[in-house]
Amino acid sequence: MLNVSIYRYNPEVDSEPYMQDFKVDTQGKDVMVLDVLEKLKTEDPTLTFRRSCREGVCGSDGVNISGKNGLACITPLSEAVKGNKLVIRPLPGLPVIRDLVIDMSQFYAQYEKIQPYMINNNPAPAIERLQSPEERAKLDGLYECILCACCSTACPSFWWNPDKFIGPSGLLQAYRFLADSRDTATEERLANLDDPFSVFRCHGIMNCVQVCPKGLNPTKAIGHIRSMLIRSAT
Amino acid sequence: MVTTVTSLGRSGLSDWMIQRISAWVMTAYLVFIVGYFIGNPNLNYAQWAELNSSLPMRMFSLITILSIAAHAWIGMWCVLTDYITVRLIGPKATAIRIFFQLGMIAITLLYVIWAIDILWGI
Fold it and tell me: What is the pTM of this model?
């Protein structure tokens, strides 16, 4: 039997959060953490968590699994269980709505700040805006982000200043548009980032890289933004 | 874009660059001083005073002191804006943070002036 400890908090009933212990029979199978949560929900329907695609694409089920942020649906027990114990908590740093569900408004507000859409004021061509294969290759490692918030909620700079520091996820997306050959707002985008918080609160500790379930590298993208700022400002 | 008034360079890029350059200056000074001590095992006061009263050495020391001051200003400002915030300690945080920021800036400037007085008083 696997010992599972889960963070519980229902603000309508509980005065403060607590950890609830469960025992789960996984029949020795190396199932995913989400499977354990689903099984527990059949026993206790009040257990609350987000999930949708269950294959690491939608980014709904980001949780803190035995101390490390990740997606419950693609994290096998063999990676998550330490000493026959699995500890599941909500992603740290953002307000808890209930159990494992967090309020991601602050995270999305930062995402919105970087204008996550193509800006091109040139007249639209007859068919589409073309890119060379080399230009398109620059977007690899950037467009794959699913906004699960595992990285930003693993970042101390984001914990302390979630209203001012864009956070690794938003900055990865910021670079995705800075690097896009079809986008013409590079200067405005850079001007909006040159303050002591938005980009420069990143001290390069690389928690984001360590936890990204898609294997992306926000620290590298932040380095590129910094280089672009240096190029435009010197 | 977040506007700041108590950071050293007012811009994130400028603070970041000052932080890197000042780190190199401090490293160079440290290497030089340690090297000088190793190269002069029987160092006496006369030699030490002669070294520090030469204009190039005074310049080097002053640039290093300015680097330490800038580096400390930026670093302390980061620490204060990380931990003394309304989010973490409540509504009084802004007044407490401004008090510590101005105190930190005043002490830094006093140290710089004191250091100049020492360097040119040798």
Answer: 0.91
